[in-house]
């Protein structure tokens, strides 16, 4: 494939990926918006532009996620920087943000555990500037990405380098939310698709897929205000197990379905004082 001298429209038609991926990579390589692809459809690609585009396509054909190639992903209406230090934000997780926003009283304190790119914390803080949002992660590299995303989106978030609750002695929150690693060790999906390129520590607990969820549930009582909510994203077949974890000590225990109809988030309220 040699696209030097091809028009923008011809190059788009010649690319071997699906139409959406072709458009995203062409925009990225040429520094164009979607509108620019139309308004500049007849301009021709220089040799440098063609080489850059072909290199991007080659990376995608080897399986590298589009989000890592272009360095960003949209989530909850915001642009998030992503790198191979963090999990790529997914639409399913927007359900967790929506549930948190519905349950946050004015000025309430929220904790996002295992924040990764900062998607949950930044989305909440951007939507609710009155909220006191904290986020933690055990990965310093992930926190660097999250801080950059908070700054880029004008969101006020306190970030902590912490292995789960280790850095939170004595602190309490009105809501704790988390999208922890919940894929079981050896799951075939870890060797397929985009997951091959994402950080393993953000995907799997290297055990049965429930150990991180157990850790969060076990420690949450000491860090939730009376009546505070604990909301947990989990795997497609883990809702019943998570509800069972919450049965002792939590009220209003329930699960919520994502847009695909899968029980994706489960949670409950800490006992009132």
Descriptive report:
The chain is an alpha/beta fold and about 270 residues long. It has two domains: about 10-60, no CATH class; about 85-270, Vaccinia Virus protein VP39 (Rossmann fold). It has eleven helices and nine strands. The strands form two sheets. Strands 5-4-3-6-7-9-8 form a seven-stranded mixed beta sheet, sandwiched between helices. The chain has a two-stranded antiparallel ribbon with strand order 1-2.
- Rg on CA atoms, Å: 21 Å
Number of helices: 11
Query: In which range does the helix fraction lie?
Result: 25-40%
Major beta sheet, specifics? 7 strands, mixed
CATH class of the largest domain: Alpha Beta
Key terms:
2 domains; single chain; Rossmann fold; 273 residues; two-stranded antiparallel ribbon; alpha/beta; 11 helices; seven-stranded mixed beta sheet
Topology:
Elements: H1 8-14, H2 19-30, H3 34-39, H4 47-61, H5 66-70, E1 72-75, E2 78-81, H6 94-103, E3 109-113, H7 119-127, E4 132-137, H8 140-152, E5 157-161, E6 173-178, H9 200-203, H10 211-220, E7 224-233, H11 239-246, E8 250-257, E9 263-270
Parallel strand pairs: 3-4, 3-6, 4-5, 6-7
Antiparallel strand pairs: 1-2, 7-9, 8-9
Short description:
Residues 93-190 form the Methyltransferase small domain. This protein is of the alpha/beta class and 273 residues long. Helices cover 36% and strands 21% of the residues.
């Amino acid at each position: 494939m040699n696209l030097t001298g091809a028009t923008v429209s011809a190059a788009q038609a010649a690319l071997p990926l699906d139409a959406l991926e072709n458009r995203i990579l062409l925009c990225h390589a040429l520094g164009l918006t979607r509108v620019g692809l139309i308004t500049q459809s007849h301009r021709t690609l220089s040799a440098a532009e063609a080489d850059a585009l072909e290199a991007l396509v080659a990376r995608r054909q080897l399986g590298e996620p589009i989000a890592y190639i272009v360095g960003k992903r949209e989530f909850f209406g915001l642009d998030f920087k992503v790198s191979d230090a963090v999990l790529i934000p997914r639409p399913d997780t927007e359900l967790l943000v929506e549930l948190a926003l519905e349950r946050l009283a004015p000025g309430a304190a929220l904790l996002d555990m295992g924040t990764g790119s900062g998607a949950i914390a930044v989305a909440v803080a951007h939507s609710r500037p009155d909220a006191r949002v904290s986020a933690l992660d055990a990965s310093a590299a992930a926190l660097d990405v999250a801080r950059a995303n908070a700054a880029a989106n004008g969101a006020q978030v306190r970030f902590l380098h912490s292995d789960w609750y280790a850095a939170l002695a004595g602190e309490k929150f009105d809501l704790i939310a988390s999208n922890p690693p919940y894929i079981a060790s050896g799951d075939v999906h870890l060797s397929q698709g985009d997951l091959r390129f994402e950080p393993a520590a953000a995907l799997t607990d290297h055990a049965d897929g429930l150990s991180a969820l157990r850790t969060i549930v076990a420690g949450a009582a000491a860090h939730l205000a009376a009546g505070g909510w604990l909301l947990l994203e989990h795997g497609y077949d883990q809702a019943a197990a998570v509800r069972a974890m919450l049965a002792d000590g939590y009220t209003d225990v329930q699960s919520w379905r994502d847009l695909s109809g899968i029980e994706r988030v489960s949670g409950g309220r800490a006992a009132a004082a």
